[in-house]
From TrEMBL:
Lineage: Bacteria, Bacillati, Actinomycetota, Actinomycetes, Streptosporangiales
Residue segments, region Disordered: 498-519
UniProt KW keywords: ATP-binding, Coiled coil, Membrane, Nucleotide-binding, Transmembrane, Transmembrane helix
Gene3D superfamilies: P-loop containing nucleotide triphosphate hydrolases
Protein name, entry field: Capsular exopolysaccharide family
Organism of provenance: Sinosporangium album
Length: 560
Protein backbone atom coordinates (compact mmCIF):
# COMPACT_ATOMS: atom_id res chain seq x y z
CA UNK A 1 0.00 0.00 0.00
CA UNK A 2 1.33 3.44 -0.92
CA UNK A 3 2.43 5.69 1.90
CA UNK A 4 2.01 8.90 -0.09
CA UNK A 5 -0.60 11.20 1.52
CA UNK A 6 -3.64 11.74 -0.66
CA UNK A 7 -6.28 14.41 -0.17
CA UNK A 8 -9.70 13.93 -1.74
CA UNK A 9 -12.81 16.04 -1.67
CA UNK A 10 -14.95 15.74 1.41
CA UNK A 11 -18.21 13.86 1.00
CA UNK A 12 -21.52 14.71 2.62
CA UNK A 13 -20.89 12.06 5.27
CA UNK A 14 -17.62 13.82 6.13
CA UNK A 15 -19.44 17.12 6.61
CA UNK A 16 -22.04 15.40 8.79
CA UNK A 17 -19.24 13.92 10.89
CA UNK A 18 -17.60 17.33 11.09
CA UNK A 19 -20.89 18.82 12.30
CA UNK A 20 -21.17 16.20 15.03
CA UNK A 21 -17.62 16.83 16.20
CA UNK A 22 -17.54 20.63 15.95
CA UNK A 23 -21.19 21.56 16.51
CA UNK A 24 -20.24 23.71 19.49
CA UNK A 25 -18.06 25.91 17.25
CA UNK A 26 -21.03 26.60 14.99
CA UNK A 27 -23.26 27.27 18.00
CA UNK A 28 -20.72 29.75 19.37
CA UNK A 29 -20.45 31.36 15.93
CA UNK A 30 -24.25 31.66 15.67
CA UNK A 31 -24.50 33.13 19.17
CA UNK A 32 -21.70 35.57 18.39
CA UNK A 33 -23.39 36.60 15.15
CA UNK A 34 -26.71 37.24 16.91
CA UNK A 35 -24.92 39.15 19.68
CA UNK A 36 -23.12 41.39 17.19
CA UNK A 37 -26.37 41.99 15.30
CA UNK A 38 -28.21 42.87 18.51
CA UNK A 39 -25.39 45.23 19.50
CA UNK A 40 -25.61 46.90 16.10
CA UNK A 41 -29.38 47.35 16.48
CA UNK A 42 -28.88 49.01 19.85
CA UNK A 43 -25.86 51.19 19.07
CA UNK A 44 -26.28 52.27 15.44
CA UNK A 45 -28.09 55.61 14.96
CA UNK A 46 -31.71 55.40 13.86
CA UNK A 47 -32.51 56.24 10.26
CA UNK A 48 -36.05 57.11 9.10
CA UNK A 49 -37.38 56.73 5.58
CA UNK A 50 -40.15 58.73 3.95
CA UNK A 51 -41.75 57.36 0.80
CA UNK A 52 -43.82 59.14 -1.84
CA UNK A 53 -45.37 57.52 -4.92
CA UNK A 54 -45.64 59.28 -8.28
CA UNK A 55 -47.76 58.28 -11.29
CA UNK A 56 -45.82 58.99 -14.48
CA UNK A 57 -47.68 59.82 -17.74
CA UNK A 58 -46.22 60.59 -21.18
CA UNK A 59 -45.08 64.15 -21.74
CA UNK A 60 -46.17 64.18 -25.39
CA UNK A 61 -49.97 64.13 -25.85
CA UNK A 62 -49.51 62.36 -29.18
CA UNK A 63 -47.74 59.39 -27.52
CA UNK A 64 -50.25 58.53 -24.80
CA UNK A 65 -50.05 54.84 -25.65
CA UNK A 66 -46.25 54.79 -25.68
CA UNK A 67 -44.65 52.82 -22.81
CA UNK A 68 -42.54 54.96 -20.51
CA UNK A 69 -38.98 53.87 -19.68
CA UNK A 70 -39.12 53.98 -15.91
CA UNK A 71 -35.42 53.17 -15.57
CA UNK A 72 -34.66 56.41 -17.39
CA UNK A 73 -37.16 58.30 -15.26
CA UNK A 74 -35.59 56.84 -12.07
CA UNK A 75 -32.24 58.27 -13.14
CA UNK A 76 -33.83 61.67 -13.77
CA UNK A 77 -35.13 61.77 -10.18
CA UNK A 78 -31.49 61.73 -9.05
CA UNK A 79 -30.42 64.14 -11.79
CA UNK A 80 -28.93 67.56 -11.20
CA UNK A 81 -32.01 69.58 -12.22
CA UNK A 82 -34.33 67.66 -9.89
CA UNK A 83 -31.85 67.83 -7.00
CA UNK A 84 -31.58 71.60 -7.46
CA UNK A 85 -35.35 72.00 -7.30
CA UNK A 86 -35.59 69.69 -4.25
CA UNK A 87 -32.81 71.61 -2.53
CA UNK A 88 -34.72 74.82 -3.08
CA UNK A 89 -37.98 73.31 -1.78
CA UNK A 90 -36.28 71.95 1.36
CA UNK A 91 -34.31 75.13 1.91
CA UNK A 92 -31.29 73.06 2.92
CA UNK A 93 -27.61 73.78 2.53
CA UNK A 94 -26.69 70.10 2.11
CA UNK A 95 -24.65 69.41 -1.01
CA UNK A 96 -25.78 67.54 -4.08
CA UNK A 97 -23.87 64.37 -3.23
CA UNK A 98 -25.41 64.20 0.24
CA UNK A 99 -28.93 64.65 -1.09
CA UNK A 100 -28.40 62.09 -3.85
CA UNK A 101 -27.15 59.53 -1.31
CA UNK A 102 -30.35 59.99 0.68
CA UNK A 103 -32.65 59.32 -2.29
CA UNK A 104 -33.55 55.90 -3.64
CA UNK A 105 -36.00 55.27 -6.47
CA UNK A 106 -37.75 52.02 -7.29
CA UNK A 107 -40.20 51.16 -10.04
CA UNK A 108 -42.78 48.45 -9.28
CA UNK A 109 -42.93 45.91 -12.08
CA UNK A 110 -45.68 46.25 -14.71
CA UNK A 111 -46.74 49.71 -13.54
CA UNK A 112 -46.22 53.39 -14.31
CA UNK A 113 -45.29 54.26 -10.75
CA UNK A 114 -42.11 55.56 -9.18
CA UNK A 115 -41.55 55.07 -5.44
CA UNK A 116 -39.27 57.85 -4.20
CA UNK A 117 -37.71 57.28 -0.76
CA UNK A 118 -35.70 59.73 1.29
CA UNK A 119 -33.72 58.84 4.44
CA UNK A 120 -32.85 61.15 7.31
CA UNK A 121 -32.06 61.00 11.00
CA UNK A 122 -35.33 62.82 11.74
CA UNK A 123 -38.76 61.49 10.69
CA UNK A 124 -39.98 64.97 9.71
CA UNK A 125 -37.02 65.55 7.42
CA UNK A 126 -37.51 62.10 5.91
CA UNK A 127 -41.15 62.89 5.06
CA UNK A 128 -40.38 66.36 3.73
CA UNK A 129 -37.45 65.09 1.69
CA UNK A 130 -39.51 62.43 -0.08
CA UNK A 131 -42.28 64.89 -0.90
CA UNK A 132 -39.75 67.51 -2.03
CA UNK A 133 -38.08 65.15 -4.50
CA UNK A 134 -41.46 63.92 -5.78
CA UNK A 135 -42.67 67.47 -6.37
CA UNK A 136 -39.33 68.50 -7.84
CA UNK A 137 -39.44 65.59 -10.27
CA UNK A 138 -43.01 66.41 -11.41
CA UNK A 139 -42.14 70.09 -11.74
CA UNK A 140 -39.07 69.22 -13.78
CA UNK A 141 -41.10 66.97 -16.11
CA UNK A 142 -43.75 69.70 -16.53
CA UNK A 143 -41.14 72.30 -17.28
CA UNK A 144 -39.60 70.03 -19.92
CA UNK A 145 -43.02 69.39 -21.49
CA UNK A 146 -43.94 73.08 -21.48
CA UNK A 147 -40.60 73.99 -22.98
CA UNK A 148 -41.08 71.50 -25.77
CA UNK A 149 -44.66 72.69 -26.47
CA UNK A 150 -43.52 76.30 -26.46
CA UNK A 151 -40.92 75.50 -29.08
CA UNK A 152 -43.61 73.79 -31.16
CA UNK A 153 -45.93 76.81 -30.84
CA UNK A 154 -43.16 79.16 -31.91
CA UNK A 155 -42.26 76.95 -34.84
CA UNK A 156 -45.86 76.64 -36.01
CA UNK A 157 -46.50 80.38 -35.54
CA UNK A 158 -43.43 81.15 -37.68
CA UNK A 159 -44.78 78.91 -40.44
CA UNK A 160 -48.21 80.59 -40.25
CA UNK A 161 -46.64 84.04 -40.50
CA UNK A 162 -44.58 83.04 -43.51
CA UNK A 163 -47.64 81.61 -45.28
CA UNK A 164 -49.57 84.81 -44.63
CA UNK A 165 -46.78 86.84 -46.21
CA UNK A 166 -46.75 84.56 -49.26
CA UNK A 167 -50.49 84.88 -49.56
CA UNK A 168 -50.28 88.69 -49.58
CA UNK A 169 -47.60 88.62 -52.27
CA UNK A 170 -49.42 86.11 -54.45
CA UNK A 171 -51.16 87.61 -57.56
CA UNK A 172 -54.86 87.92 -57.02
CA UNK A 173 -55.58 86.46 -60.40
CA UNK A 174 -53.46 83.32 -59.68
CA UNK A 175 -56.15 81.30 -58.01
CA UNK A 176 -54.23 78.04 -57.97
CA UNK A 177 -51.30 79.54 -56.05
CA UNK A 178 -53.54 81.28 -53.58
CA UNK A 179 -55.61 78.12 -53.00
CA UNK A 180 -52.43 76.13 -52.30
CA UNK A 181 -51.18 78.71 -49.81
CA UNK A 182 -54.59 78.93 -48.13
CA UNK A 183 -54.65 75.13 -47.69
CA UNK A 184 -51.23 75.09 -46.02
CA UNK A 185 -52.14 78.06 -43.87
CA UNK A 186 -55.31 76.39 -42.69
CA UNK A 187 -53.40 73.18 -41.75
CA UNK A 188 -50.69 74.97 -39.81
CA UNK A 189 -53.23 77.15 -38.05
CA UNK A 190 -55.21 74.08 -36.97
CA UNK A 191 -52.05 72.40 -35.69
CA UNK A 192 -51.04 75.58 -33.85
CA UNK A 193 -54.41 75.75 -32.13
CA UNK A 194 -54.11 72.14 -30.92
CA UNK A 195 -50.60 72.70 -29.50
CA UNK A 196 -51.75 75.86 -27.72
CA UNK A 197 -54.55 73.89 -26.11
CA UNK A 198 -52.06 71.21 -24.94
CA UNK A 199 -49.66 73.85 -23.63
CA UNK A 200 -52.44 75.45 -21.62
CA UNK A 201 -52.97 72.26 -19.60
CA UNK A 202 -49.74 70.20 -19.44
CA UNK A 203 -50.14 66.84 -17.63
CA UNK A 204 -46.97 64.76 -17.07
CA UNK A 205 -47.99 62.81 -13.97
CA UNK A 206 -49.36 63.27 -10.50
CA UNK A 207 -48.51 62.73 -6.87
CA UNK A 208 -50.27 59.48 -6.14
CA UNK A 209 -49.26 59.16 -2.49
CA UNK A 210 -47.70 61.78 -0.28
CA UNK A 211 -45.03 60.65 2.13
CA UNK A 212 -46.34 60.22 5.65
CA UNK A 213 -44.51 60.74 8.92
CA UNK A 214 -42.48 57.51 9.60
CA UNK A 215 -43.60 55.93 12.87
CA UNK A 216 -40.47 53.86 13.38
CA UNK A 217 -36.94 53.82 12.08
CA UNK A 218 -36.13 51.84 8.96
CA UNK A 219 -32.54 51.24 10.01
CA UNK A 220 -31.25 49.33 11.88
CA UNK A 221 -34.08 46.83 11.36
CA UNK A 222 -34.07 44.01 13.95
CA UNK A 223 -36.03 41.76 11.58
CA UNK A 224 -33.19 42.12 9.08
CA UNK A 225 -30.17 42.34 11.37
CA UNK A 226 -30.87 39.40 13.71
CA UNK A 227 -31.50 36.74 11.00
CA UNK A 228 -28.52 38.08 9.03
CA UNK A 229 -26.36 37.91 12.17
CA UNK A 230 -27.54 34.35 12.84
CA UNK A 231 -26.83 33.23 9.28
CA UNK A 232 -23.49 35.00 9.17
CA UNK A 233 -22.51 33.54 12.53
CA UNK A 234 -23.38 30.03 11.36
CA UNK A 235 -21.28 30.51 8.21
CA UNK A 236 -18.41 31.89 10.27
CA UNK A 237 -18.68 29.01 12.74
CA UNK A 238 -18.75 26.49 9.89
CA UNK A 239 -15.63 28.04 8.34
CA UNK A 240 -13.80 28.06 11.68
CA UNK A 241 -14.94 24.50 12.41
CA UNK A 242 -13.60 23.38 9.05
CA UNK A 243 -10.26 25.12 9.61
CA UNK A 244 -9.96 23.76 13.15
CA UNK A 245 -10.81 20.27 11.94
CA UNK A 246 -8.28 20.43 9.12
CA UNK A 247 -5.63 21.72 11.54
CA UNK A 248 -6.43 18.91 13.99
CA UNK A 249 -3.83 16.18 13.55
CA UNK A 250 -5.99 13.51 15.19
CA UNK A 251 -7.95 10.97 13.20
CA UNK A 252 -11.65 11.48 13.87
CA UNK A 253 -13.22 8.90 11.55
CA UNK A 254 -12.35 6.11 9.14
CA UNK A 255 -13.16 8.43 6.25
CA UNK A 256 -10.26 10.64 7.37
CA UNK A 257 -7.84 7.75 6.89
CA UNK A 258 -9.22 7.07 3.41
CA UNK A 259 -9.35 10.72 2.39
CA UNK A 260 -6.02 11.94 3.74
CA UNK A 261 -3.85 8.85 3.45
CA UNK A 262 -5.62 6.80 0.82
CA UNK A 263 -5.45 3.73 3.08
CA UNK A 264 -8.15 1.06 2.56
CA UNK A 265 -10.31 0.33 5.61
CA UNK A 266 -10.67 -3.39 6.30
CA UNK A 267 -12.78 -2.95 9.43
CA UNK A 268 -14.45 0.16 10.81
CA UNK A 269 -16.15 0.10 14.20
CA UNK A 270 -17.68 3.54 14.89
CA UNK A 271 -17.91 4.72 18.47
CA UNK A 272 -20.94 3.43 20.31
CA UNK A 273 -21.83 2.02 23.71
CA UNK A 274 -20.78 -1.45 22.56
CA UNK A 275 -17.52 -0.43 20.91
CA UNK A 276 -16.28 1.97 23.60
CA UNK A 277 -14.82 -1.06 25.46
CA UNK A 278 -14.52 -3.94 23.03
CA UNK A 279 -12.90 -6.80 24.94
CA UNK A 280 -13.16 -10.21 23.31
CA UNK A 281 -16.32 -10.57 21.24
CA UNK A 282 -18.53 -13.63 21.23
CA UNK A 283 -18.85 -15.57 17.99
CA UNK A 284 -22.50 -14.66 17.35
CA UNK A 285 -22.44 -11.01 18.36
CA UNK A 286 -22.68 -8.40 15.65
CA UNK A 287 -19.20 -7.07 16.34
CA UNK A 288 -17.89 -10.63 16.63
CA UNK A 289 -19.24 -11.34 13.16
CA UNK A 290 -17.42 -8.27 11.86
CA UNK A 291 -14.17 -9.75 13.15
CA UNK A 292 -15.09 -13.04 11.48
CA UNK A 293 -15.55 -11.15 8.20
CA UNK A 294 -12.10 -9.64 8.70
CA UNK A 295 -10.57 -13.06 9.38
CA UNK A 296 -12.14 -14.44 6.19
CA UNK A 297 -10.71 -11.50 4.23
CA UNK A 298 -7.29 -12.19 5.75
CA UNK A 299 -7.33 -15.89 4.88
CA UNK A 300 -8.53 -15.09 1.36
CA UNK A 301 -5.70 -12.57 0.98
CA UNK A 302 -3.12 -15.07 2.25
CA UNK A 303 -4.48 -17.87 0.08
CA UNK A 304 -3.89 -21.60 0.49
CA UNK A 305 -0.13 -21.58 0.30
CA UNK A 306 1.94 -24.63 1.15
CA UNK A 307 3.32 -23.14 4.35
CA UNK A 308 1.73 -21.81 7.51
CA UNK A 309 1.06 -18.09 7.74
CA UNK A 310 2.14 -15.32 10.13
CA UNK A 311 -0.12 -12.33 10.73
CA UNK A 312 1.26 -9.26 12.50
CA UNK A 313 -1.07 -6.79 14.23
CA UNK A 314 0.40 -3.43 15.23
CA UNK A 315 -0.96 -0.04 16.16
CA UNK A 316 -0.19 3.33 14.63
CA UNK A 317 -0.15 4.81 18.14
CA UNK A 318 0.45 3.39 21.57
CA UNK A 319 -2.61 1.84 23.19
CA UNK A 320 -4.38 -1.43 23.74
CA UNK A 321 -6.41 -1.29 20.54
CA UNK A 322 -3.98 -3.44 18.55
CA UNK A 323 -3.89 -6.03 21.37
CA UNK A 324 -7.68 -6.29 21.42
CA UNK A 325 -7.87 -6.57 17.63
CA UNK A 326 -5.16 -9.27 17.62
CA UNK A 327 -7.06 -11.31 20.23
CA UNK A 328 -10.33 -11.10 18.31
CA UNK A 329 -8.69 -12.01 15.00
CA UNK A 330 -6.94 -14.98 16.59
CA UNK A 331 -10.19 -16.09 18.24
CA UNK A 332 -12.11 -15.73 14.96
CA UNK A 333 -9.50 -17.83 13.13
CA UNK A 334 -9.54 -20.46 15.88
CA UNK A 335 -13.34 -20.76 15.70
CA UNK A 336 -13.02 -21.88 12.07
CA UNK A 337 -11.13 -24.99 13.24
CA UNK A 338 -7.69 -23.73 12.24
CA UNK A 339 -4.68 -24.31 14.47
CA UNK A 340 -3.91 -20.81 15.74
CA UNK A 341 -1.17 -19.49 18.01
CA UNK A 342 -1.41 -15.99 19.50
CA UNK A 343 1.98 -14.54 20.43
CA UNK A 344 2.20 -11.49 22.66
CA UNK A 345 5.30 -9.65 21.43
CA UNK A 346 4.10 -6.40 22.99
CA UNK A 347 6.19 -6.84 26.11
CA UNK A 348 4.59 -3.94 27.95
CA UNK A 349 1.02 -5.20 27.58
CA UNK A 350 -0.85 -7.99 29.35
CA UNK A 351 -4.15 -7.21 27.61
CA UNK A 352 -4.35 -10.45 25.63
CA UNK A 353 -3.71 -12.62 28.66
CA UNK A 354 -6.39 -10.88 30.68
CA UNK A 355 -8.94 -11.07 27.86
CA UNK A 356 -8.34 -14.77 27.21
CA UNK A 357 -8.20 -15.82 30.85
CA UNK A 358 -4.54 -16.85 30.64
CA UNK A 359 -2.40 -16.45 33.74
CA UNK A 360 0.69 -14.28 33.46
CA UNK A 361 3.32 -16.99 33.47
CA UNK A 362 6.56 -17.83 31.71
CA UNK A 363 6.25 -17.15 28.03
CA UNK A 364 7.95 -15.42 25.11
CA UNK A 365 10.61 -13.78 27.30
CA UNK A 366 11.73 -17.08 28.78
CA UNK A 367 11.77 -18.81 25.38
CA UNK A 368 13.98 -16.05 23.97
CA UNK A 369 16.23 -16.28 27.02
CA UNK A 370 16.42 -20.05 26.62
CA UNK A 371 15.11 -20.80 30.10
CA UNK A 372 11.92 -22.44 28.82
CA UNK A 373 10.66 -24.18 25.71
CA UNK A 374 7.56 -23.51 23.66
CA UNK A 375 5.97 -26.73 24.86
CA UNK A 376 6.42 -25.66 28.46
CA UNK A 377 5.06 -22.11 28.20
CA UNK A 378 2.29 -22.28 25.60
CA UNK A 379 -1.20 -22.54 27.08
CA UNK A 380 -4.81 -22.80 26.03
CA UNK A 381 -7.19 -19.86 26.15
CA UNK A 382 -10.23 -20.11 28.36
CA UNK A 383 -12.36 -19.01 25.41
CA UNK A 384 -12.04 -20.22 22.72
CA UNK A 385 -10.22 -23.34 24.02
CA UNK A 386 -8.86 -24.19 20.54
CA UNK A 387 -6.65 -21.10 20.65
CA UNK A 388 -3.11 -21.51 21.94
CA UNK A 389 -1.40 -18.54 23.57
CA UNK A 390 2.22 -17.57 24.09
CA UNK A 391 2.14 -14.79 26.67
CA UNK A 392 4.82 -12.18 27.10
CA UNK A 393 6.42 -13.92 30.10
CA UNK A 394 7.99 -12.48 33.21
CA UNK A 395 11.49 -11.44 32.15
CA UNK A 396 10.38 -8.83 29.62
CA UNK A 397 13.05 -6.30 30.57
CA UNK A 398 15.80 -8.74 29.61
CA UNK A 399 14.54 -9.35 26.07
CA UNK A 400 13.54 -5.87 24.93
CA UNK A 401 16.41 -5.88 22.41
CA UNK A 402 15.79 -9.44 21.25
CA UNK A 403 12.60 -8.77 19.28
CA UNK A 404 14.68 -7.29 16.48
CA UNK A 405 17.31 -10.05 16.54
CA UNK A 406 18.05 -13.36 14.91
CA UNK A 407 16.68 -15.35 17.83
CA UNK A 408 13.18 -13.90 17.33
CA UNK A 409 13.39 -14.77 13.63
CA UNK A 410 14.20 -18.39 14.48
CA UNK A 411 11.37 -18.47 16.99
CA UNK A 412 8.86 -17.31 14.35
CA UNK A 413 10.12 -20.07 12.05
CA UNK A 414 9.52 -22.58 14.84
CA UNK A 415 6.03 -21.18 15.39
CA UNK A 416 5.26 -21.63 11.67
CA UNK A 417 6.02 -25.31 12.05
CA UNK A 418 3.63 -25.65 14.97
CA UNK A 419 0.53 -23.66 13.83
CA UNK A 420 -1.49 -23.00 10.68
CA UNK A 421 -1.83 -19.33 11.62
CA UNK A 422 0.45 -17.38 13.95
CA UNK A 423 -1.01 -14.04 15.10
CA UNK A 424 1.62 -11.74 16.60
CA UNK A 425 0.55 -8.70 18.58
CA UNK A 426 3.41 -6.25 18.19
CA UNK A 427 4.22 -2.91 19.82
CA UNK A 428 2.98 0.16 17.97
CA UNK A 429 5.09 1.60 15.19
CA UNK A 430 5.29 4.85 17.17
CA UNK A 431 6.93 3.02 20.10
CA UNK A 432 10.04 2.03 18.16
CA UNK A 433 11.33 -0.26 15.43
CA UNK A 434 10.11 -3.56 16.95
CA UNK A 435 7.01 -3.64 14.76
CA UNK A 436 9.08 -2.89 11.67
CA UNK A 437 11.49 -5.72 12.47
CA UNK A 438 8.67 -8.19 13.16
CA UNK A 439 6.90 -7.13 9.96
CA UNK A 440 9.78 -8.63 7.98
CA UNK A 441 8.89 -12.02 9.44
CA UNK A 442 5.15 -11.78 8.73
CA UNK A 443 3.16 -12.67 5.64
CA UNK A 444 0.59 -9.95 6.30
CA UNK A 445 0.45 -6.86 8.52
CA UNK A 446 -2.61 -5.09 9.91
CA UNK A 447 -2.41 -1.56 11.28
CA UNK A 448 -4.88 -0.57 13.99
CA UNK A 449 -5.99 3.07 14.21
CA UNK A 450 -7.66 4.19 17.44
CA UNK A 451 -10.01 7.16 17.06
CA UNK A 452 -9.39 9.88 18.18
CA UNK A 453 -6.13 8.91 19.89
CA UNK A 454 -4.13 8.26 16.72
CA UNK A 455 -2.58 11.15 14.82
CA UNK A 456 -2.06 11.36 11.08
CA UNK A 457 1.66 11.72 11.67
CA UNK A 458 1.62 8.40 13.56
CA UNK A 459 -0.05 6.65 10.64
CA UNK A 460 2.28 8.19 8.07
CA UNK A 461 5.33 7.20 10.10
CA UNK A 462 4.00 3.66 10.60
CA UNK A 463 3.25 3.25 6.89
CA UNK A 464 6.73 4.53 6.08
CA UNK A 465 8.35 1.99 8.42
CA UNK A 466 6.36 -0.91 7.01
CA UNK A 467 6.91 0.18 3.43
CA UNK A 468 10.66 0.27 3.98
CA UNK A 469 10.73 -3.46 4.76
CA UNK A 470 8.28 -4.38 2.00
CA UNK A 471 5.54 -5.48 4.40
CA UNK A 472 2.26 -6.72 2.91
CA UNK A 473 -0.22 -4.21 4.35
CA UNK A 474 -3.73 -4.66 2.88
CA UNK A 475 -5.32 -1.90 4.96
CA UNK A 476 -6.19 -0.51 8.36
CA UNK A 477 -8.57 -1.41 11.16
CA UNK A 478 -10.29 1.62 12.71
CA UNK A 479 -11.76 1.34 16.22
CA UNK A 480 -12.60 3.78 19.03
CA UNK A 481 -9.88 4.44 21.59
CA UNK A 482 -9.89 1.65 24.14
CA UNK A 483 -9.41 1.85 27.90
CA UNK A 484 -9.11 -0.49 30.86
CA UNK A 485 -12.91 -0.59 31.14
CA UNK A 486 -12.98 -3.22 28.43
CA UNK A 487 -10.76 -5.48 30.55
CA UNK A 488 -12.75 -5.22 33.76
CA UNK A 489 -13.73 -8.67 34.91
CA UNK A 490 -12.11 -10.37 31.92
CA UNK A 491 -10.13 -12.71 34.16
CA UNK A 492 -10.79 -13.44 37.83
CA UNK A 493 -7.89 -12.20 39.94
CA UNK A 494 -7.50 -15.66 41.47
CA UNK A 495 -6.09 -17.12 38.24
CA UNK A 496 -3.60 -14.36 37.65
CA UNK A 497 0.04 -14.96 38.54
CA UNK A 498 2.33 -11.98 38.58
CA UNK A 499 6.05 -11.62 38.95
CA UNK A 500 7.01 -11.57 42.60
CA UNK A 501 4.04 -13.74 43.71
CA UNK A 502 3.88 -17.43 44.37
CA UNK A 503 1.43 -19.47 42.26
CA UNK A 504 -0.85 -19.81 45.24
CA UNK A 505 -1.09 -16.10 45.65
CA UNK A 506 1.30 -15.80 48.61
CA UNK A 507 3.95 -13.17 48.54
CA UNK A 508 7.37 -14.54 47.71
CA UNK A 509 10.02 -14.31 50.34
CA UNK A 510 12.41 -11.44 50.33
CA UNK A 511 15.23 -11.97 47.91
CA UNK A 512 18.77 -11.67 49.28
CA UNK A 513 21.65 -9.96 47.61
CA UNK A 514 23.73 -12.13 45.21
CA UNK A 515 26.86 -13.57 46.69
CA UNK A 516 30.40 -13.61 45.29
CA UNK A 517 29.85 -16.82 43.32
CA UNK A 518 26.64 -15.48 41.84
CA UNK A 519 28.36 -12.28 40.74
CA UNK A 520 31.14 -14.20 39.06
CA UNK A 521 28.55 -16.27 37.21
CA UNK A 522 26.73 -13.16 36.06
CA UNK A 523 29.91 -11.50 34.83
CA UNK A 524 30.84 -14.65 32.91
CA UNK A 525 27.39 -14.74 31.27
CA UNK A 526 27.57 -11.07 30.31
CA UNK A 527 31.08 -11.31 28.90
CA UNK A 528 30.97 -14.68 27.06
CA UNK A 529 27.36 -15.85 26.98
CA UNK A 530 26.21 -19.42 27.42
CA UNK A 531 24.15 -21.97 25.50
CA UNK A 532 20.69 -22.67 26.83
CA UNK A 533 17.87 -25.05 26.00
CA UNK A 534 17.87 -26.28 22.40
CA UNK A 535 14.50 -28.02 22.29
CA UNK A 536 13.04 -25.43 19.93
CA UNK A 537 16.11 -25.11 17.78
CA UNK A 538 17.03 -21.77 19.37
CA UNK A 539 20.68 -22.57 20.15
CA UNK A 540 21.71 -18.93 20.14
CA UNK A 541 20.58 -18.24 23.69
CA UNK A 542 22.71 -15.73 25.58
CA UNK A 543 21.62 -16.84 29.04
CA UNK A 544 21.93 -20.22 30.82
CA UNK A 545 19.02 -22.64 30.78
CA UNK A 546 17.80 -22.25 34.34
CA UNK A 547 14.39 -23.96 34.55
CA UNK A 548 11.89 -21.96 36.62
CA UNK A 549 14.80 -20.27 38.36
CA UNK A 550 14.99 -16.80 39.80
CA UNK A 551 16.60 -14.54 37.22
CA UNK A 552 16.32 -11.43 39.33
CA UNK A 553 20.05 -11.28 40.00
CA UNK A 554 20.68 -11.18 36.23
CA UNK A 555 18.05 -8.51 35.82
CA UNK A 556 19.56 -6.40 38.59
CA UNK A 557 23.01 -6.74 37.04
CA UNK A 558 21.72 -5.69 33.62
CA UNK A 559 20.06 -2.67 35.18
CA UNK A 560 23.31 -1.68 36.81
Amino acid sequence: MSTTPRVQAMEMADYASLLRRRWWVMVVGAALGVAVAALAVVTLPDVYTGKATVLVTPEDPESRNTEINLDTESGRVRGVEVVKRAQAILGTSEGFETLIERVTVSAPRDSSLLAISYTAADPTRARDGANAFANAYLAHRKARAESRLKRQVNSLQSQVDKLKERLERAPKDDLDERNLINGELQAYSSRLADVRIDAADVSVGEMLTLAAMPKQSSFPDPMMFLPAGLFGGILLGAAIALMVDRADNRVRAASDVRRVLGAPILLNLPRSRKTAALGIQSARSRIGQRFHELSHAITARLGDGPGNQVILVTGASEGMGSNIVAVNIAAALARTGSDVMLVNADLRSEVSSRLLGVAEQQGLSEVLLGTSTLSEVETRAAMPPSLRVLSRGHETELVVDMLQGERMSRLVDSLRDRSRYVVIEAPSTSAGADAQALAQLADLVLMVVEVPKTRFTDIRDGLRQLDQVGAELPGAVVIPSQSDEGLAGAVPPSVMTYEGNEPGGKKAGKRGKPGKRDRELIEDIVERGAVGSDEDGLSTATFPAVRNGDLSIIKDHVKR
